[in-house]
């Protein structure tokens, strides 16, 4: 996007001088003679920088600074010798100030510095607030199934098309998405992961697209969304099948036009991002049932990568176990191995929670084995089949004939206890989405 600058200066000669010089520097410039003209422009456009005089015919520039700060940097223009105005401007949030008569060389250096600092600050703030701690940003294993996934990543990464990653919970869909990003031309920019399960519709819309000041109660200032934070990079929408229909429609518009609007906004903004989505649900079936837009499904499914569950790539279990042990041992400096009997147990388990469950089992075993050099069968603790055979039953007991809701509530409660509160596993067991499980937990106050 071009660096567009707004100049608000009532002195016609100075306004013209500043405008011409900024245009020569390669910037797109809009000039205004009053605060009202400048503000009208700001309601429909979003410049990267504002140059504003302190004394305007219809306003004091210092009084108007709070309305601009936080949306774009502001350089204040002040009369020669008015140090007090300059100090007040900096305290109110101005990025810089220039003293009249403006030196054109100083103007050029100041504008370049302010724009560079603003871009750097936004990048650093965004990374600091949104970056997740992902130590293992690669797939571990040498199985044929994993090699096929790797080959698909290599094929699609250089092509800037939307990718849909399908697979059960815990198989490593985010790692695949990150690999697509890392091998693409966008690798130097942000990779932003968004969990579509965790936020309500309005909050999710604001998080994804951003919002304007006053868009809703509590929106006291403009907020840039994740799409803007991923500018030039990749946005990863995890569990895309959980988003609401209104968000589906807006996301489809982004895919079709590369444009979007913030919540409460009237301006179209450019979306220079690659979208990678993931789901553990059958989007094709959901689209046939009408709960997921068919046109969005076709857009997302331009290139699909299926990540196999761990039970289909058992050859990788040994490598994964060694990888988790190495990472754990790095921090504790204790070298551990796994006994043949324990490894046999690990290989024989079906891993309904996939790699995430394997990691939890290994880390728990490391803790339970204390200072012993190896992990034995006794330290292994599984969520289901090895500890709870398939033919094992459990009972729901009531003092009187229960209602259907009472049965449902108790069943969910026991599953949460059985799987140590692992909601994704419970949702898969119940055959519902994680979002629906959250609603049931809230409904029954579990």
Keywords:
446 residues, 18 strands, elongated, alpha/beta, five-stranded parallel beta sheet, Helicase, Ruva Protein, domain 3, Rossmann fold
Notes on the structure:
It is a single chain. The chain is elongated. By secondary structure, it is an alpha/beta fold. It folds into 4 domains: 4-129, 3-Layer(aba) Sandwich (Rossmann fold), CATH 3.40.50.2300; 144-306, P-loop containing nucleotide triphosphate hydrolases (Rossmann fold, 3-Layer(aba) Sandwich); 315-379, Helicase, Ruva Protein, domain 3, CATH 1.10.8.60; 404-443, Arc Repressor Mutant, subunit A. It has helices at 12-24, 35-42, 61-68, 83-91, 104-130, 144-156, 173-182, 201-209, 226-229, 245-257, 283-289, 294-300, 317-332, 340-348, 354-368, 404-418, 423-430, 434-443; strands at 4-8, 28-32, 49-53, 55-56, 59-60, 74-78, 96-99, 163-166, 191-195, 210-211, 223-224, 234-238, 259-260, 269-270, 274-279, 304-306, 337-338, 374-375. It has a 5-stranded parallel sheet with strand order 2-1-3-6-7, sandwiched between helices. The chain is built from 18 helices and 18 strands. Strand 13 and strand 14 (269-270) form a beta hairpin. Helix 13 packs across helix 15 and helix 17 crosses helix 18. It starts with a strand and ends with a helix. One of its GO terms (biological process) is regulation of DNA-templated transcription. Residues 139-367 form the Sigma-54 factor interaction domain. The modification 4-aspartylphosphate is found at residue 53. This is Fis family transcriptional regulator. InterPro entries: AAA+_ATPase, AAA_lid_NorR, CheY-like_superfamily, Homeodomain-like_sf, HTH_Fis, P-loop_NTPase, Sig_transdc_resp-reg_receiver, Sigma_54_int.
């Amino acid at each position: 996007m071009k660096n567009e600058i707004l100049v608000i200066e009532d002195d016609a000669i100075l306004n013209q001088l500043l405008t011409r010089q900024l245009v020569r520097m390669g910037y797109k410039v809009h000039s205004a003679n009053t605060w009202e003209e400048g503000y009208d422009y700001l309601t429909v456009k979003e410049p990267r920088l504002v140059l504003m005089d302190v004394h305007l015919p219809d306003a004091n520039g210092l009084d108007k600074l709070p309305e601009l700060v936080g949306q774009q940097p502001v350089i204040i223009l002040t009369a020669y010798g008015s140090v007090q105005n300059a100090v007040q401007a900096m305290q109110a949030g101005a990025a810089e100030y220039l003293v009249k008569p403006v030196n054109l060389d100083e103007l050029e250096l100041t504008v370049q510095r302010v724009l560079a600092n603003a871009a750097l600050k936004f990048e650093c703030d965004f990374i600091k607030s949104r970056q997740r701690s992902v130590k293992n940003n690669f797939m571990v294993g040498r199985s044929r199934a994993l090699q096929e996934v790797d080959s698909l990543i290599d094929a699609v990464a250089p092509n800037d098309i939307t990718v849909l990653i399908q697979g059960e919970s815990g198989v490593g869909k985010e790692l695949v998405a990150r690999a697509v990003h890392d091998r693409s031309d966008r690798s130097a920019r942000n990779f932003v992961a968004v969990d579509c399960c965790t936020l309500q519709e309005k909050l999710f819309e604001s998080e994804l697209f951003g919002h304007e000041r006053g868009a809703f109660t509590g929106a006291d200032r403009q907020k840039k969304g994740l799409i803007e934070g991923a500018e030039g990079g990749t946005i990863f929408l995890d569990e895309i099948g959980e988003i609401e229909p209104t968000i589906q429609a807006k996301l489809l518009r982004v895919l079709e036009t590369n444009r979007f609007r913030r919540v409460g906004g009237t301006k179209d903004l450019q979306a220079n991002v690659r979208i990678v989505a993931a789901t553990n649900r059958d989007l094709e079936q959901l689209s046939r049932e009408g709960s997921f837009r068919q046109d969005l499904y076709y857009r997302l499914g331009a290139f699909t990568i299926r990540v196999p569950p761990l039970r289909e790539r058992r050859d990788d279990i040994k490598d994964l176990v060694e990888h988790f042990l190495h990472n754990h041992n790095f921090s504790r400096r204790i070298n551990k191995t796994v006994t043949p009997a324990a490894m046999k147990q690990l290989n024989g388990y079906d891993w309904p929670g996939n790699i995430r469950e394997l990691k939890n089992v290994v880390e728990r075993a490391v803790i339970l084995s204390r200072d012993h050099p190896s992990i034995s069968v006794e330290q292994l603790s599984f969520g289901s089949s090895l500890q709870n055979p398939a033919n094992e039953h459990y009972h729901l007991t009531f003092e009187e004939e229960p209602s259907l809701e009472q049965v449902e509530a108790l069943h969910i409660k026991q599953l949460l206890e059985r799987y140590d509160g692992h909601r994704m596993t419970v949702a898969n067991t119940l055959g519902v989405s994680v979002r629906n499980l959250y609603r049931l937990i809230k409904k029954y106050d579990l």
